Amino acid sequence: MIRKLGVLAAVAVAASALSGAAEAFAGANGKILFLGNRSGDREIYVINRDGTGLERLTFNNLFERAAAWAPDGTKIAFAGRGPDGNFDIYTVAADGSDLRRLTTDPARDDDPAWTADGTQILYDRALFTDTLSIRIVNADGTNDRALDVGPGNNFAPETAPRGDRIVFASDRAGTFDLYTAALNGGPVRQITSGPGSDFDARWSPGGNDIAFMRDSGAGDNDLYVVHANGMELRQLTASPTIAEFGPAWAPDNTEILFFAGSGGPTHLYAMSPAGGSPTPLSTTPRAPLEENFDTGIRDASLWHEIADPGATIGEVGGRLVITIDGSAQPGGPFNQVDAHWGSQCSLPGDYDMQIDYTLLQWPTPGGFYAALDAFFANAGVSRHSAPWGDDYTAWSDGSVAGVPTGDLSGSFRLVRAGGWETAFYRSGGSDWIQILSAPAVLGDAVYGMGLSTPASEFHQQTGSVAFDNFRLNSGELVCPSWWSDAWPDWQALPVRGD
């Protein structure tokens, strides 16, 4: 979710095709998870490869990093920093439920990786703080123990998709290089040897190749691929001003995802494991977009909230419920009492949006407007409790129209197209009925829904409304440029063909 995604700078194209392309994989590509800061904290999101199906999974007080799908796609492991400032290993179900803390050591636990059978999780301990060691714990948090992979600082383990091999980074030879070993012990084999530091290793779906990140020491990380036996090292990216991190293979072996940036926000990219130019992976929310207000908590990555004194707003019983108390005092720059949710993103062009409403407490006259708004486009459609009687009121840049009504529930709709703003209402199961069609204010519009009352109409009585089933039917969203995405991983839906 960013304003613009720029294509990475110069990319070195490998001379030879990836031998791992022969690795047969008969499964489908599943959801992509990534970590985003768009709620003000870093949380786990999932999305389809084509940019559809964006969903936030976690709503917690943890700062997440290095998330990884379980082999069967039912769980996610990640490192989470809690209120105590320490990172530990956690798991969460694929729908965001069942959050579990697996480790509690005061040292930093990081970089979790599932074993091929999904019963255990490898991780490293003491990143940035002490001698780094690799550990393994059962997926239920039991039997946490050290894994002996030899001397030096050892971290960032990753298990092969089949068998018991692991790859990890170690500085036992003086710089951080990649090594492979058997999960149950045995000889350790060095497969890279600098220059720079190698880590973030990820096995290809068939286990024949390993993608990894090489840090040159100049703030310029690049991605490489090497055979699991250490042969045929190939550089995938060569971007002097951009650092790439966290490669993740597509289950069908056709792409490698990663995140990259140049000192500011990082974003997701995809490229062929045979080389070529990276392409941005858009994580901006897109229409059709629905909000059913059924999580019990505001998703700050989608909605901002304003609630003046005397007003309350929040999800209650699967609806967005807004109340203005009769004791509230209008004020502020618009001399009103207002409570609303508005989008964190904007619509610079045409749009089509709608929402259902139910009046819960509605004095007449009360001076209330329960509205679907296009903020900054000076447009909206509302259920109005007016001194002269109840009506549907719509407006666009100074043009106003109303239709008398006694409806206690219904739907609103706003459409901007071809330079015109058109407002509709719907009663019960009726068709959409037009209230207003007038010249539109062009430019960025922020959609939202709320309850307000101006001082000139407020009768110091309590009013309340419930909204449900918001839908952005069409419109291209532009989102804040500070949003940063990281740590992609691709959910395998495995049906192995070899």
Write a short abstract of this structure.
With 498 residues, the chain is mainly β. It folds into 2 domains: 19-283 and 481-493, Neuraminidase; 289-474, Sandwich (Jelly Rolls), CATH 2.60.120.200. 0% of the residues lie in helices and 49% in strands.
Structural class assignment: mainly beta
Rg for CA atoms: 27 Å
The CATH superfamily of the largest domain bears the name TolB, C-terminal domain
- Which CATH first-tier class of the largest domain would you pick? Mainly Beta
Distance between the termini: 37 Å
Number of DSSP helical runs: 0
Describe the overall structure.
With 498 residues, this protein is an all-beta fold. The chain folds into 2 domains: 19-283 and 481-493, TolB, C-terminal domain (Neuraminidase); 289-474, Sandwich (Jelly Rolls), CATH 2.60.120. 0% of the residues lie in helices and 49% in strands. Strands 24, 26, 27, 29, 34, 35, 36 and 38 form an 8-stranded antiparallel β-sheet that branches. It has a 7-stranded antiparallel β-sheet with strand order 25-28-37-30-31-32-33, with no helix packed on it. Strand 17 (209-215) and strand 18 form a beta hairpin.
